[in-house]
Every structure is written in structure tokens, then in C-alpha cells.
């Protein structure tokens, strides 16, 4: 069993914006019936942590040779320190797959940088999905993932955790709140109840008091105590590493299960959260609206080995740049590949002000982020009560 101790899950706004806002705009995430029936927490619109497994994108590893020449450290710093220039750094690069250029032709956005984005007509030609062939779609989708891997080489789950048990609990707690809030809350929880046995035997009222800051604390208390009991009674106190077992846990649906599988067990999975749903539709990767169908449709565009990192890249982009209500198109590094360019602010200076987290110069959500994130200029989130 492989455990990624440097990562967690999640996805919210730095301003504390709750998932509810986006969930109400986009299609609500639906968990599998099995999980829905069991888990109070995941029945809420935007459940558990959505970031997916994995660390730096494998897609980044397949970046074109000319990009690799710059060296990973330099790229990371550039991405972190110059948010709005990310587009300049990536969009202007030649396509890693030559024939991918054909897929770019019908795009509305300019081919280079945010400055060019400013002057480009929003939709001079039809979007790529209108008459895009399957082959062109696959190439464009994979190129977007490669570009995002360049922009977020340090992408990781945004829930702090040290073992699979902590991850599954934190992911359940992340429903309807920010990962930051969860990360600020779980240290006290895991200090008092470090194992499934401890939490299974806990006094619910005491757990509720600890979880109060995360909202829906009674339902969440019920879920985490309930799943701890199932772990103890049916799985020997260990978090199972199979999807079919994970979804049997109270509060755990497919999305949460994939988060755990990807991040704690290194097993590829696509995490279809609210960001993922919104972005893949903007990119016209699929017209599906059901999370399970989106998962299948997008999964078919990529090799399985890319799934976990793809989830990270998409979710990070959704949190930082391609927001639900005000996407920062003018500062977007994949504008040339996006049929929805122009849906948000296209003025580069105005778009820069919309950037969040490290792209906007703010702390991330993890109190204990991976070293790669810190090396790239990212900052840890403050502990609870630190202001
Ligand atoms: S809609 Fe999103 S992905 Fe497309 S250009 Fe705007 S910010 Fe970028």
C-alpha cells in the first residue's frame, strides 16, 4: 500500500467561499446510490475533497522537449511568482504534437500569451467542439492537460493527511466547506482520535464540538464515527484500497473513493467535482452532465495513468483561474485551446485581480503543503484562529 504523506485533497476558494455557491450554479455532484443512502455528508451538494490523487502531473513529464530545457525548478518558480504571465510562458510554446495545431485553428483565443489575449476577438471562429473530430478533441484535451501540468507542476490534493484514515475522514469533512477549514479542524480531531478504533468509540457530542467549524457538524460526526465503526468491524481497522469497499463506508461515494484511491493508494482515478464538471464542459470535452458519465467520457480521452494528475490539474485550474462566475480568461494560459474563452474577463490586468491562491499571491489551503509547492513560492495556510 502506497501512502502519499505529502498530499491531501480538496478544493475551495481562498476567500472562504463555500462549494455551495458553485454547486448551485453547476450540476450538483451525485454520489453513487450506495453512498447516498449511507452517507449524510456526501449527500450534500458538493461533497468531500475533490482534488484527486497525485502530486505533480505525469502529463508534465511528457511535456515537449523545448519546455523541459528550462528545468523544472525554474518553471515552478515562474509559475508561482508570475501568475498572469503563465499564459505567456505556456501558450506561446509550440505544440508538442505537431498535428495538434490543426485543432487550434478554429479557436477564438490568440495563440500567444495574455497580452495577445487582450486584443483577440472573443470568438472569431467557431469553437473547436462544434466540428471537432474525435482525434482533434483527444489531442486538444491532452494538450490542455500538458499545459496545465506546466502551470501547476506542484498540483496536489489540498487536504492535509498523513495516512489513508485521515484522508478518508478529511474528505468526508470537506463537504460543504473549504479544504482550508477542514485542514484547520482536523489536527485537533486526529490528535484526540488518531485511529479508527478511537473515533469509533468516541463520544459524538465531543466530536461534534471539534467539527463544528466545518458546518453540518452533526451529520459529519455521524459519518466519521460510522465509517470508523465499519472500518473496525469489517476491515480490521484499515482503510480498504478497493472502490467497491470504499463506497460501503458511510459518507463515501465514488468521488471520495477516487480521492482516497488516488492519493493514499496511488491508483488512478478521475475525481469529478464541481470544478471538473464545469471546466470539461467549458472545454467541450463532453456534453454529459451526470458525474459518472463525465468520468467515463473524459477517461476515454486520456490514458489511465494520467487520470489522477489530470484531476489535480483541472481542479487546480478551476480553483485558481477558471472560476465559476468570473473566469480570468485574460490571465489564462490555455486560452488558445479553450472554446469558452471570453466567457470571463479578458482584460489581462483585470483578469490578474481575479486569480486566487498562489496565482494571486495568496496562501494555499494546506497547513502542511508539499515541499514542491513551497519551493515554487507557495505559502502554507494559517492555522485556525491565526486570522
Ligand atoms: S473559460 Fe476558463 S479555461 Fe477558458 S479561457 Fe477562460 S479561464 Fe481559461
UniProtKB/TrEMBL annotation:
The EC designation for this entry is 4.2.99.18
Protein residues bound to [4Fe-4S] cluster: 322, 329, 332, 338
Residues in HhH-GPD domain copies: 173-320
Q: Where is region (Disordered) located? A: 1-131, 360-387
Q: List the cofactors.
A: [4Fe-4S] cluster
**What are the Low complexity biased-composition ranges?**
59-73, 81-91
Which catalysed reactions does the entry list for this protein?
A: 2'-deoxyribonucleotide-(2'-deoxyribose 5'-phosphate)-2'-deoxyribonucleotide-DNA = a 3'-end 2'-deoxyribonucleotide-(2,3-dehydro-2,3-deoxyribose 5'-phosphate)-DNA + a 5'-end 5'-phospho-2'-deoxyribonucleoside-DNA + H(+)
Q: How is the cofactor bound?
A: Binds 1 [4Fe-4S] cluster.
- A Pfam cross-reference name: EndIII_4Fe-2S
Q: In the record, what terms sit under GO molecular function?
A: endonuclease activity
Record's compositionally biased regions (Basic and acidic residues): 15-47
UniProtKB keywords: 4Fe-4S, DNA damage, DNA repair, DNA-binding, Endonuclease, Glycosidase, Hydrolase, Iron, Iron-sulfur, Lyase, Metal-binding, Nuclease
This chain's function reads:
DNA repair enzyme that has both DNA N-glycosylase activity and AP-lyase activity. The DNA N-glycosylase activity releases various damaged pyrimidines from DNA by cleaving the N-glycosidic bond, leaving an AP (apurinic/apyrimidinic) site. The AP-lyase activity cleaves the phosphodiester bond 3' to the AP site by a beta-elimination, leaving a 3'-terminal unsaturated sugar and a product with a terminal 5'-phosphate.
Q: Which family does it belong to?
A: Belongs to the Nth/MutY family.
Q: Tell me what this protein is called.
A: Endonuclease III
What is the organism field in this record?
Streptomyces viridosporus T7A
Show the taxonomic lineage: Bacteria, Bacillati, Actinomycetota, Actinomycetes, Kitasatosporales
Amino acid at each position: 500500500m502506497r501512502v502519499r504523506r505529502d498530499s491531501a485533497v480538496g478544493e475551495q476558494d481562498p476567500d472562504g467561499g463555500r462549494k455551495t455557491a458553485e454547486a448551485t450554479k453547476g450540476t450538483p455532484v451525485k454520489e453513487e446510490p450506495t453512498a447516498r443512502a449511507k452517507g449524510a455528508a456526501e449527500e450534500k451538494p458538493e461533497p468531500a475533497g475533490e482534488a484527486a490523487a497525485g502530486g505533480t502531473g505525469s502529463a508534465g513529464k511528457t511535456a515537449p522537449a523545448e519546455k523541459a530545457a528550462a528545468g523544472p525548478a525554474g518553471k515552478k518558480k515562474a509559475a508561482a511568482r508570475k501568475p498572469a504571465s503563465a499564459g505567456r510562458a505556456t501558450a506561446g510554446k509550440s505544440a508538442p504534437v505537431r498535428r495538434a495545431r490543426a485543432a487550434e485553428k478554429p479557436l477564438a483565443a490568440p495563440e500567444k500569451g495574455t497580452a495577445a489575449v487582450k486584443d483577440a476577438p472573443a470568438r472569431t471562429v467557431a469553437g473547436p467542439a462544434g466540428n471537432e473530430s474525435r482525434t482533434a478533441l483527444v489531442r486538444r484535451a491532452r494538450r490542455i492537460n500538458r499545459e496545465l501540468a506546466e502551470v501547476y507542476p506542484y498540483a496536489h490534493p489540498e487536504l492535509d493527511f498523513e495516512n489513508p484514515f485521515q484522508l478518508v475522514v478529511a474528505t468526508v469533512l470537506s463537504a460543504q466547506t473549504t479544504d482550508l477549514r477542514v485542514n484547520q479542524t482536523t489536527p485537533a480531531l486526529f490528535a484526540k482520535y488518531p485511529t479508527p478504533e478511537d473515533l469509533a468509540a468516541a463520544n459524538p457530542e465531543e466530536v461534534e464540538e471539534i467539527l463544528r467549524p466545518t458546518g453540518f457538524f452533526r451529520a459529519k460526526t455521524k459519518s466519521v464515527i460510522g465509517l470508523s465503526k465499519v472500518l473496525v468491524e469489517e476491515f480490521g481497522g484499515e482503510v480498504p484500497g478497493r472502490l467497491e469497499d470504499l463506497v460501503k463506508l458511510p459518507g463515501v461515494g465514488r468521488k471520495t473513493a477516487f480521492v482516497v484511491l488516488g492519493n493514499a493508494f496511488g491508483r488512478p482515478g478521475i475525481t469529478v467535482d464541481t470544478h471538473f464538471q464545469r471546466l470539461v464542459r467549458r472545454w467541450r470535452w463532453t456534453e454529459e452532465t451526470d458525474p459518472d458519465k463525465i468520468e467515463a467520457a473524459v477517461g476515454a480521452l486520456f490514458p489511465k495513468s494520467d487520470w489522477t494528475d489530470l484531476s489535480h490539474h483541472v481542479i487546480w485550474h478551476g480553483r485558481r483561474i477558471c472560476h465559476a462566475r468570473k473566469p480570468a480568461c485574460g490571465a489564462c494560459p490555455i486560452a488558445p485551446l479553450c472554446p469558452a474563452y471570453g466567457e470571463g474577463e479578458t482584460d489581462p490586468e483585470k483578469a490578474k485581480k481575479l486569480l486566487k491562491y498562489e496565482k494571486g499571491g495568496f496562501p494555499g489551503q494546506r497547513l502542511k503543503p508539499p515541499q514542491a509547492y513551497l519551493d515554487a513560492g507557495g505559502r502554507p495556510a494559517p492555522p485556525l484562529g491565526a486570522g
